[in-house]
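REQUEST ID: PR-0412
SUBMITTED BY: lab tech R.K.
PRIORITY: routine
TASK: structure prediction, single protein chain
INPUT:
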Amino acid sequence: MTDTHVLNIGFDDTDSPKGMCTTFLAYKIVDWLKKQDTEFLDFPKLIRFNPNIPWKTRGNGAVSMQIRTKNPSKIKNQIKNLVKKYSDIKNGANPGLVFYEKEIPESFTRFSKLALWQLIHRNHAKKFAIKNNIEFFYQGNGQGLVGAIGAIGYDFKDHTLELLSYRKNSKFGKARNLSAKSVKTMQEKTLPYTFNSFDNKKDRVLITPHGPDPVFYGVRGENVDSLLHATKILETSEKLAGHMIFKSNQGTNDHLKNELNPTNIRPYASGKITGIISDEPKIVKGGHVFFSILSDGHELRCAVYKPTGMSSVALSLIKGDKVCLGGGIRKASKNYPRILNLEFIDVINLEKNLIKSNPICKKCDKKMKSKGKTQGYQCTKCGEKSASKVTLEIPRKIKKQLYIPNVSAHRHLSRPLQRIGRINESKFDESTSWFCVYEN
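STATUS: complete
OUTPUT:
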């Protein structure tokens, strides 16, 4: 293209718990852009931000695109119209839309990193947009500007892909009919190039949402070919509208790379912290486990909830164990202090679990009984005596390793075991079938 402009587009918060979806808006925008003289420079990007934000609808995801065009003004006007059309404002959506035509500055990347683990107020986003000459549009309170700016500033160190299939309008809000057996088969045939599709322990499908939004299913993976292969294995009687593949930070643990410390542990913050177990873990009604760690002279209460499947690991910790913990800070209440809700436990060092015990009779191999205070111990069978208790080492039930939740308890950003140590280097290819509207 000659006389073209590179245009960065970001938008967020167009959905509500009652309907619509920011990725569906992206699908509609791409469908329109494909009919214009538009060149896509990368996949549309689906960026998941801090999952602990209390007012998020589902996965706290924002979308961005980078295109080359001869007519940016026409595109901006049409996208603004599409945002108005496909935002569920009447049910609480607060959409934000931004355009930026220059090279993305480092300040945008810093803003994006903060949005991964902090709570950023919408007024800060508005001031940032004005200061950096970002064209922006919003409705409602403008909370969507936070994700919109963060999405165009996101700097990928690793990425995954997600193929989202969309329903026809007549099916919105109706039950999804997808063969569980086909999902299980798909996972078996596409591993390790897809992930978190089916929970074999609970015999549960993980790729279908449960709400009234337009998404039928979403398959996460490493490359386009594997995702397209997956769609051919999945079985449903429903006729779908089409699909689009997004580049995403899902499955990267990016939100937990921030180091938590006494100065930045605020409500809703995400990150990781290293410390020493400072009290014995205790289980409460419901199967949840609570304990504390000491880090940089400050104590922090931690919680492991039963659905994560990590309760037994938490219960096996003892005072003195060194651990690195990742998760999100729950706001303190009148009855409870602030708590780190755990998303992983990385055991760095294990203390010896030593206990004092009555001595064992060497002749009879039986535990001796106390003769009374300061009177020592004696075997009731042969009369053998011993002066004092002995120290025994109890074998530990856990190892020095990383423990993560059950797959059903994974968040969008959680890095599954099969992705640990993996960096995705797949490249965008405009010619591949990353976008498709199916024939009626």
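NOTES: The chain has a mean pLDDT of 94.
REVIEWED BY: pending
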